[in-house]
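User: Working on a comparison across species. This one is IS110 family transposase from Streptomyces flavalbus. Can you predict its structure so I can line it up against the others?
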Amino acid sequence: MAAQAPQDTTGTDQKVFGGVDSHTDTLHVAVISDNGGQLADAEFTTTPAGYAAALAFLDAHGSVRAIGVEGTSSYGAGFTRAARLRGHQVIEVNRPDKAERRRIGKSDPIDAYAAARAALSGRASSVPKDDTVTGIRALHNAARSAVKARTAALNQIGSILVSAPEAIRAKYGPLKSTDRADALARLRPAGDALHAAVLTALKTLARRVKELTAEHEALTKALDTAVTAGNPGLRAAHGIGPDTAAQLLITAGGNPERMRTEASFAALCEAAPVPASSGRTNRHRLSRGGDRAANAALYRIALVRMGSDPRTREYTARQTAAGRTKKEIIRLLKRAIAREVFRCLTTTVHVPEIADLRPLRLSKNITLTAAARHLGVWPTRISDIERGTRRLDDLAHAYRDWLQTA
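Assistant: Here's the predicted structure for IS110 family transposase from Streptomyces flavalbus:
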């Protein structure tokens, strides 16, 4: 698309705002003045040379105050890096809502000018996520895709067994998924053409399941290492595993200061109540304009705590006695968990050192059972502390004090 002729700004220090509509191979750049007037727009390639040309195009029209970019973490990531390296202020811009698109239509120039106006008006004000969680995002996506592929293979095995010959169905049908995959992976297809074909398909799928299981375990281990290094306090919180911690870090970004308050983070996770009153009705509902994956992570954390965290179980009992449903209680828990996660993301949380606990216990020939009996807990609690799978700070301090004096 040919660029509009830029207005002559020679000798002036005109303040301008940029807008970028990004795509896989191209990005469309628009420039507006500080009073909202459209100056020019042009299309560039998503290459280093294209980014340099786009930034030169913006600078040619005056002093660039800010650049609104759609897709700062996807198609616009390369341009965002280049612009920030040049010292420009980049603003993350959401896509225009459906009502606006129905009113004014959609095209690359329209979206680029809309992004520029969003940066000018302050409707968009979020700083883009930095690159510190890019590796976590890559590992998280790969691990989730392994789970999806494994589930698909297991479903295919079950589907084949439904219509398989009776001998095959009777032998492998009653087995559970893991035992069934192990048995099918070891079999040697034999028999007539029908039996051999069905068994070959089942064996292939079973081997795929085992390979994907090993792949997922390796990716989860790498993800756990990356998440723990990135935010040990978040990973150590009760009920937050590698997957949920990774999702929350991805949602917040590696620079959580871009979120001003914990209420904004709760809204981002779809866990913030918003007014839904009308006439005689006075009520609230949860925000639906955030990250569904982050909301699902909070939901899983709430379920884990409802089953294993004493404080959460007591709270659930009190709320149940007050007449609230399980769904309502989970909503309250998600809001409280969002508040706790925000503190972990924005402040330094000190996690007690646990690497020396097991060697210290073994050096004194103390068993897990003996330590647990002295502290009045189950042996699994001591094991959780030593392995770092559960954060129990008070118990960890008491355990360390006892080991040092035992």
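For your comparison, note: Residues 133-230 form one domain.

User: Helpful, thanks.
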